TrEMBL record:
<dbReference type="GO" id="GO:0004177">
    <property type="term" value="F:aminopeptidase activity"/>
</dbReference>
<dbReference type="InterPro" id="IPR010384">
    <property type="entry name" value="MtfA_fam"/>
</dbReference>
<keyword id="KW-1133">Transmembrane helix</keyword>
<dbReference type="InterPro" id="IPR024079">
    <property type="entry name" value="MetalloPept_cat_dom_sf"/>
</dbReference>
<dbReference type="InterPro" id="IPR042252">
    <property type="entry name" value="MtfA_N"/>
</dbReference>
<keyword id="KW-0812">Transmembrane</keyword>
<protein>
    <recommendedName>
        <fullName>Zinc-dependent peptidase</fullName>
    </recommendedName>
</protein>
<feature type="transmembrane region" description="Helical">
    <location>
        <begin position="18"/>
        <end position="35"/>
    </location>
</feature>
<dbReference type="Pfam" id="PF06167">
    <property type="entry name" value="Peptidase_M90"/>
</dbReference>
<dbReference type="GO" id="GO:0005829">
    <property type="term" value="C:cytosol"/>
</dbReference>
<keyword id="KW-0472">Membrane</keyword>
<dbReference type="GO" id="GO:0008237">
    <property type="term" value="F:metallopeptidase activity"/>
</dbReference>
Length: 282
């Protein structure tokens, strides 16, 4: 009789606690799947993520890093207080997640870290998944360096196999500080990183980027006159026509540095790039 009572008690406990928790977990999982499906549908229809910001456990910059970002990054200064907090979080996360290495006795400073991280953050600010998993190491040389991989001198490069992005700091700084000559090493190399990263992933932002790039290439393939105008205008430097990766990276430099001229000369290309990046800045 006592044994039966204990069994009834245990079953009552299961029924009153474990089963409701199990049902609650199943409901949460179903809601999560519905949200994932809806996000894909939303991105497909509107060409942008349903949301991009993270609201919990935001990383913080040191006071020195924040002062550098505030004084030396024009994009950051144009943002609303809410977006500034998100921008800071992403800059801090980039610095925390990547190893910075100085070559040829170059000492990597907070200023260098913030400027590199802010460039990546600006370009990916419209992404829901903004992590560039293709990068884990940032290598900085004082000037143009000799690459042992292809036996040539470089200003910058990305090596997906080693998950490394490399910059000549002199040239990175030139591009960072002169914002209207359509030559920006940081934007160019991070453009490659974004392109390669998206080609290997299937998240919402990669989906939007890849579909946008497909639309961009198809638009040019089907419009011979536009292709001729691109070349004749000399607005994009000749290096753009090396391959599809260089084409996007050069377009991105012009898109960021001289947006008004870009939009005026090639409005369709401008619109497609803006959609690909879900770009939010004026």
């Amino acid at each position: 009789m006592v044994l039966q009572t204990m069994q009834e008690y245990e079953w009552e406990m299961v029924r009153n606690s474990v089963i409701p928790l199990l049902i609650f977990g199943i409901i949460l999982f179903i809601l999560y799947r519905i949200l994932k499906i809806f996000q894909v549908y939303y991105a497909t229809v509107f060409n942008k993520p349903l949301f991009t910001n993270r609201f919990f456990r935001l990383n913080r910059l040191t006071s020195n890093q924040r002062a550098i970002l505030k004084s030396e990054n024009a994009t950051y200064r144009t943002l609303s207080p809410k977006d500034k907090r998100q921008f800071e979080h992403r800059v801090a996360e980039f610095i925390d997640k990547n190893t910075f290495v100085g070559r040829q006795e170059l000492v990597v400073t907070d200023q260098m870290k913030v400027k590199v991280a802010a460039t990546a953050t600006m370009l990916c600010f419209g992404f829901k998944n903004y992590h560039l998993d293709i990068i884990e190491i940032v290598v900085l040389y004082p000037k143009v360096y000799y690459s042992q991989i292809n036996k040539a001198y470089h200003k910058g490069e990305i090596n997906p196999r080693l998950k490394t992005i490399v910059f000549s700091w002199e040239d990175f700084l030139h591009g960072y500080e002169i914002g209207d000559d359509n030559l920006n090493l940081g934007i160019h190399e991070f453009g490659h990183a974004i392109h390669l990263n998206a080609s290997r992933k299937s998240d919402i932002s990669s989906l939007i980027f890849n579909r946008g790039f497909k639309n961009l290439t198809e638009y040019l393939q089907h419009n011979e006159s536009v292709r001729q105008d691109l070349i004749a205008s000399k607005y994009f430097r000749a290096y753009a026509y090396t391959n599809q990766y260089e084409f996007f990276a050069v377009l991105l430099e012009n898109f960021i540095e001289t947006p008004s001229e870009f939009k005026s000369q090639f409005p369709v290309l401008f619109k497609l790039l803006k959609q690909m990046l879900n770009f939010k800045f004026s």
